[in-house]
């Protein structure tokens, strides 16, 4: 069993996890300090436990554990297991003079993450680059998005994550459908244009009209989507969309890749194991 305590809460309350596991017992304590906060822990456990900073442990009353186990504590098999654990703890010298049970404390230091540090570290994960396009009352609209992933095969679903500050995504959402383009390395300049705010993004951009939106020429693939749902996610929105049509995917140019704040491409280290499949339309 594990005694969990989150000292980041204004009034931390202990919680017993896996209460029927009598083979191991320790305390897991979360704090936003950079070092063990023993005085705060003692305050959270006042009345039914004491801390032992020198030993890196706490001693908690058996009755408190029974209370935290809730209805399970009235089960005869649980009581047998709990009694056996106390007997074993006594043999091992893990009870103090008052009969309280020792539990080693494992500290989890949860330090607030600065946005720049978050961006820097996650920038080491290479991503592909996509452009979303749609119609707004007959006018072409579009935006670059590299927060994209496939979600489900059946039904075929994808997800994109536009920033809440995006001025274009609300217009695409209102359209209800869009085309997601997988961009080739030759279109780095186009991807940058579609990421610029207040830019006339379709100037000198070759495309053809479709019902879902303007289909940009020379993409690696065209994924036609219908918006299914949106989910709040901090300063971004997770958008789930159903794929209703596919074009491309037959090989060709290298993809455009974004890595550590720069655009580039991908070079395979070995020959592909199998040839590309047929073009799907």
Distance between the first and last residues' Cα: 55 Å
Proportion of strand residues:
35-45%
Instruction: Specify Rg, calculated over alpha carbons.
Output: 28 Å
Q: How are the strands of the largest sheet arranged?
A: 9-8-12-15-16-11-10
User: What is the count of DSSP helices, taking H or I runs of 4+ residues?
Assistant: 6
Give a quick precis of the structure.
By secondary structure, this protein is of the alpha+beta class.
Topology at a glance:
Layout: E1 2-6, E2 15-17, E3 26-31, H1 38-44, E4 49-52, E5 57-60, H2 62-69, H3 76-92, E6 101-109, H4 115-122, E7 127-128, E8 130-136, E9 139-145, E10 148-152, E11 157-160, H5 169-175, E12 177-182, H6 188-195, E13 207-209, E14 214-216, E15 221-233, E16 236-248, E17 257-259, E18 262-264
Parallel strand pairs: 1-3, 3-6
Antiparallel strand pairs: 1-2, 4-5, 5-6, 7-17, 8-9, 8-12, 10-11, 11-16, 12-15, 13-14, 15-16, 17-18
